[in-house]
Inverse folding.
């Protein structure tokens, strides 16, 4: 093995002895000095996860979070120098993490927090002006062909838990009091201007927006969704600058 | 392309960056609005390149606005120039895109490695100083400079241990890299101090062994105190404290030798209020102006 291979392996796994061939000018034990690097690597990666998943940290407590993150870091270290992307798989890891099996909503809260990070850094796109959308909706000739392109930051998350309520409850004084934890919610995450916003949608609205993202025309998307309030959902998308392009699809 | 016929002018090569010989600050996301609102009297801002390798959103929005009003130093922390493997060409292309977009007055990276195989370790790791490492680092810097079509600055490291098979003194190694590759030196005065204490070297002797004629930018930062198993001081380059008096003293010695050069106050952990950082920048600015008068 190369020097750097040994060094890298021992940084991530504290069970391994420090690599051979290290020295210090004063003859001090190199392991104490190697530990500085090991600590830098592990704590910087754990801190990166703590920054990206602040609500998960509050839900499980700092000590538990850091212990859980340390195991994740060791088993799934970053594969890119872009730390904003680190932890994409943290939610899946949490879902499989045995010690937290009794608190099953934590993984979905992690998924929501990840979508917020993704939305924060997503590409910019100019929204369509509301009057343009209204004009398109008012034209019966072309309405059936009308498709919306939605903002690149926009994502959906269907959860069996009250994921939006749990997340929102931790934005100020954290408390889960009064939240029906097992009442599933359908989250919508998007960036409106510079701010990332989170909404809870009714089930049909979530399916409808999912169809729009797939490129389905507006009317077909609505018809193929469980009952929901179309006017209210369109108003939400327009008011939060989520529609970035109007297209007309040739019908077969 | 640089004039070499006036060796009495130590700052000739510092002209390889277009940063003004003034104090600058690292740009923190928590300070975006304050910077735009107050437009502080600073020579430049510096950002970590990797933080801005995102598609869109607030980071680009604010950096774009701040760039309109301030010179910019782009500082990479993820290229792994000392890595045993090849450079990540995708990452190099992302750097080229950022440089194209923001036209920074300087680009710098570290004499360190941070990637091995597919794994990015998120720390600046130490190198054995021997001929294979020297050849590799020079080849990587050539590749960077050819891709980015500009000279880069290489930062001297803060290290906590050495390698038994090192055959070249660190300052000599850096001098040779700079001689061969034509890159400049980002002189991190805190790293000089931290490494010299950790390896029981004389900081002034180390400084004088470095190619000071090639300094294009200076970094100043704070360190944390620890000790090794013999009870000797072990300093940690954590960018989490105010600049230590010993580092200010060493900085004066640097300015005496090379005159005023763009100087960054680095703070990445326990980031204080913007005013606190501004006060440290003003302290550096005062020393820069003194050095200017003395020159």
């Amino acid at each position: 093995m190369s020097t750097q291979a040994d060094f890298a392996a021992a940084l991530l796994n504290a069970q391994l002895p420090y690599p051979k061939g290290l020295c210090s000018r004063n003859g001090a034990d190199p392991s104490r000095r190697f530990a500085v690097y090991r600590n830098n690597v592990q704590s910087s990666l754990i801190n990166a996860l703590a920054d990206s998943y602040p609500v998960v940290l509050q839900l499980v407590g700092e000590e538990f979070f850091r212990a859980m993150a340390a195991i994740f870091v060791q088993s799934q270290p970053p594969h890119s120098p872009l730390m904003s992307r680190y932890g994409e798989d943290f939610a899946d890891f949490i879902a499989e993490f045995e010690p937290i099996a009794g608190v099953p909503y934590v993984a979905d809260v992690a998924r929501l927090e990840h979508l917020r990070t993704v939305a924060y850094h997503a590409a910019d796109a100019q929204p369509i002006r509301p009057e343009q959308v209204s004009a398109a909706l008012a034209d019966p000739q072309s309405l059936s062909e009308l498709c919306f392109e939605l903002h690149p930051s926009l994502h959906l998350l269907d959860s069996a838990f009250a994921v939006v309520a749990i997340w929102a409850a931790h934005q100020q004084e954290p408390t889960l009091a009064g939240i029906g934890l097992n009442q599933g919610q359908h989250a919508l995450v998007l960036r409106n201007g510079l701010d990332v916003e989170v909404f809870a949608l009714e089930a049909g609205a979530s399916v409808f927006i999912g169809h729009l993202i797939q490129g389905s025309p507006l009317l077909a998307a609505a018809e193929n969704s469980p009952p929901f309030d179309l006017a209210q959902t369109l108003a939400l998308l327009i008011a939060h600058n989520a529609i970035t392009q109007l297209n007309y699809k040739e019908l077969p | 392309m640089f004039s070499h016929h006036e060796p009495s002018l130590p700052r000739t090569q510092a002209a390889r960056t277009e940063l003004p010989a003034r104090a600058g600050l690292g740009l923190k996301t928590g300070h975006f609005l304050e910077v735009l609102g107050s437009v502080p009297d600073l020579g430049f801002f510096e950002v970590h390149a990797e933080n801005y390798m995102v598609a869109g959103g607030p980071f680009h929005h604010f950096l774009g606005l701040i760039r309109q009003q301030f010179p910019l130093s782009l500082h990479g922390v993820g290229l792994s120039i000392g890595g045993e493997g090849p450079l990540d060409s995708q990452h190099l292309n992302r750097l080229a895109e950022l440089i194209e977009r923001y036209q920074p007055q300087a680009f710098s990276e570290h004499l360190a490695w941070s990637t091995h195989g597919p794994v990015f370790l998120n720390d600046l790791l130490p190198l054995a100083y021997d001929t294979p490492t020297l050849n590799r680092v020079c080849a990587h810097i050539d590749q960077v400079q050819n891709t980015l079509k500009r000279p880069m600055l290489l930062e001297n490291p803060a290290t906590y241990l050495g390698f038994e098979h090192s055959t070249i003194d660190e300052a000599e190694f850096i001098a040779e890299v700079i001689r061969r590759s034509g890159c400049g030196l980002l002189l991190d005065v805190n790293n000089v101090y931290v490494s010299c204490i950790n390896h029981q070297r004389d900081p002034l002797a180390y400084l004088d062994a470095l190619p000071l004629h090639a300094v294009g930018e200076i970094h100043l930062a704070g360190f944390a105190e620890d000790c090794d198993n013999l009870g000797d001081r072990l300093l940690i380059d954590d960018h989490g404290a105010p600049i230590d008096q010993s580092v200010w003293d060493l900085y004066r010695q640097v300015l005496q030798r090379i005159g005023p050069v763009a100087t960054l106050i680095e703070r990445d952990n326990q980031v204080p209020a913007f005013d606190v950082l501004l006060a440290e920048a003003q302290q550096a600015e005062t020393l820069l102006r003194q050095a200017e008068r003395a020159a």
